[in-house]
Amino acid sequence: MTLLGKAAYHGSRLVLAAVFIYAGVVKANNVVAFAGQIANYQLLPYAWNFLVAATLPYLELLCGILLLLNMRVRPAVLVLFVLNSIFILALISVIVRGFDIDCGCFKPDSEQSTTPLAALWRDLGLLVLMIATWTLRYVQRPKELG
Length: 146
Fold this sequence. Notes:
By secondary structure, the chain is an all-alpha fold.
């Protein structure tokens, strides 16, 4: 792999790690507020909002730490890709239904809100980083083993 490819791989991996470690820690610090943000989407039964709010931050945190440590990168990216894809579908649902809610991604109890459209664009960018990390990890891995 070229130097540029290695830099792109490590750069995208570290950006994803930072984003998901931060998001996981912030959400885990206020699970009740995060559950309220999830409830605003009106997609899950009420009790499930708390279940998702209690588990999702730790899953994001675990995947972010794995990315930071450059361990189990592809499984971590795959989990984040699935979660992000589900969230993108939820955002599209919110936009189509005309809800004006905060996405709840980073600061569930913040006075500053992120519009669903802004969150959608951000998540599409994260999706690109995930695809780059997945692809570049595949390219890098065989040459390191050989």
